[in-house]
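Subject: sequence -> structure tokens, single chain

Hey, anyone have a minute? Need the predicted structure for the following. Not urgent.
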Amino acid sequence: MQIFQKCARISGNLIVCTLLGMASVLPVHAAETPASPALKEARTALAALTEKHRTAAAVSLSFESRAEGADGNPMPPVKGNLVTADSGRFRLQHAQGLVVCDGETVWQYFPSTKQVVIRSASESNANGSGGAGGILLRFLQARATSAGKSGKDGTLRVVLDPGSVGESLDSLILTLSADGRTVRQVETQDPAGNRVSYALKSLRYDARPGRAAFTFKVPSGVETVDMR
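Reply:
Had a minute. Here:
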């Protein structure tokens, strides 16, 4: 699963980056084809977005995801909102419930089952639960391999190499606004053939969430599962 779907299914594991060992012989490098104007534009835009994302004190976004299984059957769209800040803090609201992290503790609230699962943030970060804000940044840092303008509005469709940032996906594509200043859509396909697209309805780097955004009070009458 990928960027925001991983957030929505916060208990799932993120794909762990793998360090490749040094080869015993020197590799032979083929001459690289000169980058097209669109690819140069895409790489410049991604570098600027990466820096903006990295230096922002807080980031907020709203999204809608649409998934399709390997059998081609579509799943219902999922909408969500995410706010992230420094020190690993985040708040994710999605169709299945709410996930909040104050940098030390992660609370997962599932209204349908009236259950709250509590984990330590360090443990959640290890399996990906706390990486909500970092996933988009990692995608922005992936190496762009090709790009082209599409649609009447001139959006920039960028094909990325997921392996360059340790993601074992078969495909990773970002669609940027015509001026390259905003991410419009993320499309992924995993090795099993599952495809997911995430339309970003809004993406702000000037968010000012209050401290209450990263606190959670367990509702009365729910079951609490403390896994710390």
